[in-house]
Design goal:
The complex is a heterodimer of chains A (392) and B (412).
Chain A (H helix, E strand, L loop, with lengths): L11 E11 L6 H16 L8 E5 L8 H7 L6 E4 L6 H15 L5 E7 L5 H7 L3 H6 L7 H17 L3 H15 L13 H6 L2 E3 L2 E2 L8 E9 L1 H6 L4 E11 L13 H12 L8 E4 L4 H10 L8 H7 L15 H5 L9 H10 L13 E10 L4 E13 L2
Parallel strand pairs in A: 2-3, 2-4, 9-10
Antiparallel strand pairs in A: 1-7, 4-7, 5-6, 8-11, 10-11
Helix pairs in contact in A: 7-11
Chain B lengths: L28 H11 L4 E5 L5 E2 L13 E5 L3 E10 L5 H4 L4 E8 L4 E6 L8 E8 L5 E7 L10 H4 L9 E4 L5 H12 L4 E6 L9 H6 L3 E5 L5 H11 L5 E4 L15 H28 L10 E7 L1 H4 L5 H21 L5 E7 L17 H14 L3 E4 L1 H12 L1 H7 L3
Helix pairs in contact in B: 4-10, 6-7, 7-9, 11-12
The chains are: A alpha/beta (392), B alpha/beta (412).
The complex binds zinc ion.
Zinc ion (ZN) binds next to loops of chain B.
Chain lengths: 392, 412
């Protein structure tokens, strides 16, 4: 059944907030969420009374979800939602908040992702991540997501004839982008030899294929153009979005994601083609997922990802600026905030307030999310095409 | 070539034993159910009772039609689709065992799954899949080569799931019986380094003593399970150098509850079969479990041989059945306790044996040789529960289907 997506008329994305990440933090997810709200109020003059919609995403706020956060931080919204889908949560937050604003269920929705990272957080998150993981993934060497993605990478490389160099090119380009971002955790230049010779983690993955878990928070606001004007906020429009879960469960090993199912809708609703897009912020827990998204989202012909990577410059001044803040591979993975940093960086490039270097032409961007390796593959996918509206 | 384990001769007493870690215990109830089948060496997967769809990992409902799932025997064949070698992990158990190879297998019956890999299998290879119990006692899929090769079971990863007697120091609690002696010879044939053979009464000679005591890999040692002092003394001397302990002791007399049996026979049965096992476990398991994580010469298994009537009771062997029921219960408790340390606990359930104490029971009966061979196989395969003989197999099958009916059927 063909779906006709209603337009996102009357919806503005604004006020991207990033609280500088830390490798480890003794604080809680609540503390980090509060830090995001504090920074938001300083930058926008929004108060608790103005905020009538809240979306929250976190892996480390246990036992609290959005309701605990709302009470903890003294909010009183008319609408709220909890989005526990990690790398896909940012795109899903845009979709849900946008419709809430359009329908009038909420006027000013603040979307917050916050995660802390204690010394033992990573292991605790793994232990309780999902039932299938407990039963059928972690008992197998307990390599965590590294092992699962290693298998996906090994398979993807064989299927599409890639070598480690292609993944290295992505990691190195993102590191170069990170070098301009003062708050990226890893800014030291990376060259191909260092990438190839790094410590093995789970073959074929080596150290620079893996993100560094850290603590941090990201936030943005979804509201109407009228409210944005009142608060003097620069705005970005949503042109089209897609979301898909548990697609292609028949594939023996994941080499494509749910985007493939809906990609035509995404581009046709936006009235753009991939070649019209100025930059892409795609989820990057591992380079293989970046490659998968570029191919599945139509930036190259299916099966031609090797050539596309070799032919494309992914740095900020390049043909397709990619993960311009350095992405998670260089800026760090702050839990669920990793699923929002692609959104906040995209908004910043559109409204010309980047953390690092500005892309020269940056009005049309693509955001893509990928989340929840519940067992042997990522279950949740989503994407959004956005466009600069008003810069104030 | 199968990567082989090295065997050192002596543990340095000055080096502190490492704290042992076992793999994670967190599992769903459905996966724990798989462990019951894995314990018997069966390969089962969930099959939908309505649409016959076969799924994995364990679920509570069919993902195709939401029907009810049941465990069914499945073909073990699979193909290796992709693999990785894990070098880095936050898990304390696997940190001691990396690099560790796993892969994605495609089972011929449909589902894909992660599995531990034998060192001889490569991507594209045809596999034979086993459900093994890992060091935490939980089920795990292990991919073996389809073609049997020499020393295949000595693979390093595979050996973490098994208790092969090769190169091991083994204590048998009662060497005075035919079972104890047959088992000794079979263990040595299977490569055991030494068998310490318990003798409850050094003054009283036993049948077969002359030939077995001459064997260079056998050492007859004083061990009387009826005496706490004797068991303790034995454990002080041998607890630190026993890798596998096998309890072969059993007190068997015919006799019913009301008419033919004597209270003294019940007391004797309880004292050897129940208290004897408890003394043995109490004296040896703390020392053995402390050594179960050692890199060189770990203690790996505790095995008990007991009567199948532990499940059903038996009117004419009332004291044997009652004491065996208690024995089975003790072993189950011990298994749970030892799963925290990684020491594997095995049970071998036997039917009536061909000896003077089972004259009243008609054939088929099991021989000491059958029992000995089964014990070796169960250790080699890491199979927790083994049934020896047609009577034991038949009773177990009936008991699995309907325990109360099976108990009633043993009443004539
Ligand atoms: Zn079904």
């Amino acid at each position: 059944m063909k779906r006709y997506q209603k337009s996102y008329e009357g919806v503005s994305l604004c006020a991207p907030i990033t609280i500088p990440y830390r490798r480890y933090s003794p604080e809680t997810a609540h503390w980090w969420a509060g830090a995001a709200l504090k920074e938001l109020s300083l930058q926008t003059n929004l108060t608790a009374n103005d905020i009538d919609g809240v979306i929250f995403s976190s892996f480390s706020s246990n036992p609290d979800t959005v309701v605990g956060i709302v009470q903890h931080l003294g909010l009183s919204p008319t609408w709220m939602d909890n989005i526990p889908t990690g790398g896909a949560s940012g795109v899903m937050a845009i979709r849900r908040a946008a419709r809430a604003v359009q329908s009038g269920d909420a006027n000013i929705v603040v979307c917050i992702a916050a995660d802390t990272n204690h010394i033992d957080s990573f292991q605790k998150t793994l232990d309780t991540f999902s039932r299938f993981s407990q039963d059928a993934t972690y008992p197998y060497g307990q390599g965590g997501p590294n092992a699962t993605f290693a298998i996906m990478t090994e398979y993807f490389m064989r299927k599409f004839n890639l070598t480690r160099e292609e993944f290295g090119k992505i990691a190195i380009a993102q590191r170069q982008n990170a070098s301009t971002n003062p708050i990226a955790l890893m800014k030291k230049p990376l060259n191909m030899n260092q990438y190839l010779d790094a410590k093995p983690i789970a073959n074929p993955l080596h150290l620079f294929d893996c993100v560094m878990p850290c603590a941090g928070a990201e936030a943005f606001v979804v509201t109407t153009p009228e409210v944005a004007e009142k608060f003097n906020l620069s705005t970005v429009k949503v042109l089209s979005t897609i979301e898909r879960h548990n697609a292609f469960s028949e594939d023996h090993i994941q080499y494509r994601g749910g985007w493939v199912k809906d990609i035509d809708d995404l581009w046709s609703s936006s009235n753009y083609n991939p070649s019209d897009i100025n930059f892409a912020q795609v989820y990057d827990d591992y380079p293989v997922i970046v490659a998968m998204q570029l191919q599945d989202l139509g930036f190259c012909e299916n099966g031609k990802i090797k050539q596309f990577i070799n032919d494309t410059d992914f740095t900020i001044m390049g043909d397709l600026p990619l993960n311009t803040n350095g992405g998670q591979l260089s800026a760090g993975q702050a839990g669920a905030a990793g699923g929002y940093q692609n959104v906040t960086e995209a908004l910043r490039q559109c409204i010309k307030q980047p953390l690092g270097q500005q892309i020269p032409n940056s009005t049309k961007g693509l955001i893509s999310g990928f989340g929840m390796v519940n067992y042997d593959r990522g279950v949740c996918t989503g994407a959004a095409i956005i466009k600069t509206d008003t810069i104030r | 070539m199968t990567k082989q384990k090295k065997y050192l001769t002596k543990k340095n007493p000055l080096v502190k034993s490492k704290i042992n870690h076992v793999s994670s215990h967190l599992r769903s109830r459905a996966t724990k159910a798989l462990a019951c089948h894995a314990a018997k060496g069966d390969f089962v997967l969930q099959e939908c009772s309505e649409c016959q769809y076969i799924s994995y990992p364990p679920r509570d409902r069919c993902p195709k039609c939401w029907g009810v799932l049941t465990w069914k025997h499945q073909k073990r064949h699979a193909t290796l689709l992709a693999e990785t070698t894990i070098h880095s992990t936050t898990d304390l158990y696997f940190r001691e065992h990396v690099p560790w190879r796993i892969g994605t297998i495609l089972l011929d019956v449909g589902p894909t799954a992660f599995a531990h890999l034998h060192s001889n299998v490569q991507v594209g290879d045809k596999l034979k899949i086993h459900v093994m119990l890992d060091r935490s006692g939980n089920p795990a899929l292990f991919a073996m080569p389809r073609k049997v090769t020499v020393n295949m079971e000595e693979d390093y990863q595979y050996s973490q799931f098994t208790a092969s007697p090769k190169g091991k120091r083994i204590l048998i609690s009662d060497g005075r019986t035919e079972i104890g002696q047959k088992l000794t010879y079979e263990l040595i044939k299977a490569g055991a380094e030494i068998v310490y053979l318990g003798n409850a009464d050094s003054n009283l000679r036993f049948k077969g003593q002359d030939s077995i005591s001459k064997h260079k890999n056998v050492k007859i040692i004083p061990l009387n399970l009826l005496s706490t002092k004797s068991v303790k003394k034995c454990s002080q001397q041998y607890g630190g150098k026993v890798d596998i302990l096998i309890n072969t002791a059993s007190y068997v007399r015919s006799g019913s509850i009301a008419f033919s049996g004597k209270i003294t026979e019940m007391q004797n049965a309880i004292d050897l079969n129940v208290n004897g096992l408890t003394r043995l476990a109490k004296a040896f398991c703390p020392a053995m479990s402390a050594r179960s994580g050692d890199e060189e010469r770990p203690a790996i298994a505790f095995l008990d041989i007991l009567s199948i009537f532990s499940l059903t009771s038996h009117p004419d062997y009332a004291s044997l059945a009652a004491s065996s029921a208690a024995r089975l219960s003790i072993i189950n408790s011990l298994r749970s306790e030892m799963s925290l340390s990684g020491l594997k606990v095995f049970s071998t359930l036997i039917g009536p044996i061909e000896d003077e104490w089972h004259q009243d029971i008609p054939p088929p009966k099991v021989t000491a040789e059958q029992i000995a061979k089964s014990v070796i196989t169960s250790l080699k395969n890491g199979q927790e529960l083994t049934l020896v003989g047609n009577v034991a197999k038949d009773i177990f099958e009936k008991w699995s289907a309907n325990p109360l009916l099976t108990m009633r059927e043993t009443i004539k």
